[in-house]
Amino acid sequence: MLWSDPENKPPKELRDTQEMLRRLGILMALAMVLVMLVIGVR
């Protein structure tokens, strides 16, 4: 690898998509916990 090679950074769109998927995963996990609590209360 040469020192003049460009940095290996993903494009902005890919980073934005990964961030959105991460947030979506956290939201899904919280929603599942909430559903489990609601089912447990009944």
UniProtKB/TrEMBL annotation:
Keywords: Membrane, Transmembrane, Transmembrane helix. Pfam families: MmpB. InterPro entries: MmpB-like. The chain crosses the membrane at residues 20-41. It comes from the Bacteria. This is Uncharacterized protein. It comes from Streptomyces prasinosporus. The lineage of its organism: Bacteria, Bacillati, Actinomycetota, Actinomycetes, Kitasatosporales.
